Every structure is written in C-alpha cells, then in structure tokens.
Amino acid sequence: MDEDWVAAGPEAMRRSLADYVRALHRAYLTQLDLLAPAERAAMPLAARSGVTVAVAAARDLHLVATTDPLPAPRGPEVELTDEYAGVRWAVRFFDASILPELGLVGASGQDDPAAVRRVLGVADVVYHLSVSPGGGLGAHHAQHAGVALANQHAAAIRDGQAVRRAFPGREALVDEFVVAERLGLVHSARLLAREIAGTALGEADLAGDVASMRRALLRVGRGEPR
Description:
Blueprint: H1 3-7, H2 10-31, H3 37-42, H4 44-47, E1 51-57, E2 61-66, E3 79-84, E4 87-94, H5 102-105, H6 113-120, E5 125-131, H7 139-166, H8 171-183, H9 186-197, H10 210-221
Parallel strand pairs: 1-4
Antiparallel strand pairs: 1-2, 2-5, 3-4
Helix pairs in contact: 2-7, 7-8, 7-10, 8-9, 9-10
C-alpha cells in the first residue's frame, strides 16, 4: 500500500475511504437521472435498502457492497453511515487484525475477489471493486467508477429484460442468470446460459466473462448472426 497514505493513520484512512464511497455513490445516483423511471427503480444501489459497503484490506483494498445483514460492530470494528438522494448506506472496515483470514487472501501474490467475499461471509453483492490507496482513492477516480458502475448496471438490466422477452417460458432461468451475473458467479452463469439457449451457444460464446455471455444470449434470442 502507499506508504504516505498508511502513515496518515487509521482514522484518516477510514475517512478517505468513506469519502471515496460517498463520491462513488453520488456519481452513480446522479447518473440515474438519465434513465427511464422503470430503469431507475431497478438499479441495484438505488432499489435496495440497508446496503453496507465492507472495506476489506487484503493485498488490495476491496469495496464490497452487500445487502446481507452484518452484526453490530464490536471491539475494534468501525462503521460510518452516510446518505445521498434518499439512499442510506454504512461503511464497515475490516483488515487482518479483525479478520485474520484476510491476511491470507493475497498470499499467492494476487487477490481472489471470491475469497474476499468468503472471508466476509457475504453472498448478495451489489458491487465489488478493487481500489489502490493513495491516488486511486481520489474523488475524480470515484466519480468515474460510479458512472461506469451505473452504466454497467443499466446495460445489464436492459439486456436482461430483452433476454427474458426473447426466451418465453425460460424467464425463471433468465432471472437466475441475471443474479449470477450480479454476484460474479461465472460457472453458474455459464450453466444457465447453456440451459437457456441450448446448442445455439457455442463454446466461444461461453468462454468469456458473464457480460459477454449475456450479449451472446441476446444475439441468439434476436436471431442475429454470429
């Protein structure tokens, strides 16, 4: 981590992270003004109450926003609350002194986001971002991240609705696929995509990330050529 940033002390570190989350959420929620009313209502960060952003310090800093209920802070745990545009959230801070398993996540030289979520014990993830301390925590970076996240969520919602319409009778499977994408469950999404579209999806369609699988489903559902 950035030595100057760490030297500022834990209170300053927590304040910087809370400010970053606020700038990110503000950019995300402001971006909603550009969407249709129904799309705004479906956006994960605006549509869900009781969001907690767990800041987990492994090799990198992980911001994991979840609606899973967390127990009240105890001992050295710190929680800060904030609000913007009627949306409230809490920011909780975790490091290896609180969750020793976090110290093992980056032992191989690279963090595994799924491992971070397992250590936190959360499953319903609104977003999961990795950020760098120091310059990576500036307001400008947070604004870009918030806008990008809002655009990603909006695209996923529009495509998900279109895929539902394109595969009548398989809406439940499509809904599961949408959840798998939001939670980053690549293997589950791959199995669901194959179940939804069958042999119309080739191996290349299933080899990428979940967003590319979603686009492939949409293409097949619309009868577009590869």
